[in-house]
Design brief:
Length: about 500
Amino acid sequence: MINADEIAGILRQRIANFRSEVQEDQVGTVIEVGDNIARIYGLQAARQSELVEFPNGVFGIVLNLEEDNVGVVVLGSDTTIKEGDLVRRTGRIASVPVGDALLGRVVNALGDPIDGKGAIETKKYRTIENTAPTVTERQSVHQPLQTGIRAIDALIPIGKGQRELIIGDRGTGKTAIAIDTIINQKGRGVFCIYVAIGQKASTVASLAQILEQRGALEYTTIVVANASEPPALQYIAPYAGCAIAEEFMYQGKDVLVVYDDLSKHARAYREVSLNLRRPPGREAFPGDVFYLHSRLLERAAKLSAEKGGGSITALPIIETQAGDISAYIPTNVISITDGQIYLQTGLFFQGIRPAVDVGLSVSRVGSAAQIKAMKQVAGPLKLDLAQGRALAAFAKMASDLDKNTQAQLRMFDTITEMLKQPQYHPQPVEEQVVLLYAATKGLLTNVPIAQLQSWASRFISTLKAQHPALLKTISDTKTIGDESAKALEAAIADFMKSF
């Protein structure tokens, strides 16, 4: 039997609990689309850098706020977008997922995984554009960030919180230095973010494979905006990478971020700007191209103790044309960073690798980012190299040289050979110190230059096997005391007998 009273009671309860919810969406209309740029009418309240959604699920970022329309860069293919389509405001400023879940993953510029390892389990997001820490929120750079490369750790030291530019022509080993630095952070508690801008997908895939083989992918996030992707994604990629890094920095952790490379980033931004009809300036770059990189690199900092003491160390990469470091984008980035590592094509083809030009490279943090042991060997090293370079130029013209000049040239050749290092073989700082000590103290004069690399690898193996306490003492005390120096010289003398 149907009970009318029961049905009436249920209806009354439903009516009493009814709440009408009105959902308000601000919607605009596409009035023009092409070259991954859409102009939209009717989004008067849209904000700069806000995400808007097109009908097919493609997102865009609002970049131009004009009187009667907004200019939006499309983050994906614009082929399915047509005139008259409705566009919805999301109310969300462009942001990416952040947190530990991103470690060991390869993501695109929007933070979506592209490595086939499933979804990223994180509920935390950060906006891609954030204000850089103020002067009072920072402290001076004083802790070394070891790259594991002798030529850099000794002569152009990098500190935690520093911005060191890697600059050089194509194919001179810029990415190799950055990758070696990432590999060298294993077991040091430094998280790494590698941002690949405008590179081939195959190059990024092989790079991820190298990091995985060497156990470096577990503390690294790779952010990719491939050459085939729209310029808008290439433009936001480094900011997305920096946002992921900031999450760790504000937790008091140390992060290394590599931007590879900012030349392609500037070109992507130029394309976006010209398509948005912004007025062009020098070399057709927009007037704010300096601000493009300065607001990114200023976010790298060593935070004060009150803020947790975390740090972001930035290694931006710039590709030069025919070694011209005085071009527009290179000079812009040089003026923003705290020094540069300049790689020279000539040195690369002479077999001096890494091809660091010690004369044109500089670290504006200097020995503040070195342990005492490295300072002890790096001082004489710089002097010997400077004198050797000056003499080498004259030695080509002179037929006979006095013994003092010959000794200085021999020292220059020894140090130059000792600064060579194979790729993907970063070295702990105590091993670097031992080898450079032997070179600067003139203990290798009897070893032929061609055999120095062999001597170095065999001597380190012998030292690890027979004198492990010596390496541990240098590592723990971070200095070469009198006793350590005597023990080291004795070990070298002993090894020389069997070499």
